[in-house]
Amino acid sequence: MSKIFIDTGAWIACIDKNDKHHKAASDYLETIQRNNIQVVTSNYIFDETITWVKFKLGHKETIKIMNLWEQAKNNDLLTVYWIDEKITETAWNIFKKYNDHNLSFTDCTSFAVCRKYDIKKIFGFDSDFNTLGFLLSPYQIHEKKINYKVLEP
What we know:
The protein is of the alpha/beta class and about 150 residues long. The protein has a single domain (about 5-145), classed as 5'-nuclease (Rossmann fold), CATH 3.40.50.1010. It is about 55% helix and about 10% strand. The chain has a five-stranded parallel β-sheet, sandwiched between helices. Helix 7 (about 130) links the parallel strand 4 and strand 5 (about 135). Residues about 140-153 have low confidence and may be disordered.
């Protein structure tokens, strides 16, 4: 089964109707679900997303989103990878190596998860994923806008 990693920006775009990517993100999430693509993310991405939702949309919306995610996990529609010591070590090495790029540590943990679980596609809008050779959906893959320099891992 094909896998796709969902980044914070994609979750936010799906949740926030005022986000400039909302329509594209919502449509793409429906496409993912229709095509039975395994949706994966990390606990760090959950943390970023939930924090954003709490401060931008409020506590009630945060609880609603968490309940939806729980249902999705319980129905095997969502897999959450936890950032453990090994992934943290890999992420830290990526973070140190690419000090000339504006990568957050959370970005680096996402890169490490994708490498560990051989995930090539990212559902998101953060071009930092391009730095390490990942393709972003929905725009780059579907519109073939793949003009970026890939750094050697």
